[in-house]
Amino acid sequence: FKQKTAYEMLRSLVGSEMCIRDRVTPGLELVMREEVILMASQMLPLPDANHACRLRCSPQRAEELIEEIGTYYAARGLPATVYTSPACTPADLGERLTAHGYLRQEGLEAWLVLDSVARLPLPAAPAGVSVRRIEAGEAATFAQVFLAAFEMPLVFAPVLADYLEPSLSLPGSVHYLAEVDGTPVGTLSLLTDQSIGILGSAGVLPTHRRRRALTALAVAALGEARRRGVETLIVQTSADTPLERFLRISGFRRAFTRACYVLPWAD
Question: What pLDDT sits at residue 242?
Answer without folding.
Answer: 81
